[in-house]
Amino acid sequence: ADIKARDEDGDTPLHHAAWHNSPDAIKILLDRNSDIEALNHMSQTALDCAIKVKAREAAKALLSYGADTSGRDVDWIT
């Protein structure tokens, strides 16, 4: 699979892994150099997607890889 592929909303596989709270998929994608700060058509990163659906484990995985938390409420994640 192409880790840089995008769907009609501009979501990458990393965005989908975040939406579906899949920390293992997130780790695999990031270990293969997926862009952690890639933006979809709504200007959301994977971390934004995880926050939106309260996907705690996905958010933790993204944070462990250094996702940018600027302007985001991440207190609930830890």
General description of the model:
α1 (13-19) packs antiparallel against α2 (23-31), α1 packs parallel to α3 and α2 (23-31) runs parallel beside α4. This protein has a domain at 13-64: Serine Threonine Protein Phosphatase 5, Tetratricopeptide repeat (Alpha Horseshoe). It is built from 4 helices and no strands. It is globular. With 78 residues, the protein is mainly α.
What is the element layout, followed by pairings?
Layout (H helix, E strand, L loop, with lengths): L12 H7 L3 H9 L14 H7 L3 H9 L14
Helix pairs in contact: 1-2, 1-3, 2-4, 3-4
Compact overview of the structure:
The protein has 78 residues and is an all-alpha fold. The chain has helices spanning 13-19, 23-31, 46-52, 56-64.
Supply the CATH class of one domain: Mainly Alpha
Helix content, binned percent: 40-55%
Which structural class should the secondary elements be placed in?
mainly alpha
Q: What best-fitting shape do the alpha-carbon axes yield? A: globular
Largest sheet: none
Second rung of CATH, namely the architecture of one domain: Alpha Horseshoe
Distance between the termini: 31 Å
- Tally of strands: 0
Total of DSSP H or I helical runs spanning 4+ residues: 4
CATH topology of one domain: Serine Threonine Protein Phosphatase 5, Tetratricopeptide repeat
- In angstroms, what is the radius of gyration? 11 Å
Assembly level: single chain
Q: Average pLDDT value? A: 95
Uncertain residue ranges:
none
How do the helices and strands follow one another from N- to C-terminus? HHHH
Strand percentage: under 5%
CATH superfamily of one domain: Ankyrin repeat-containing domain
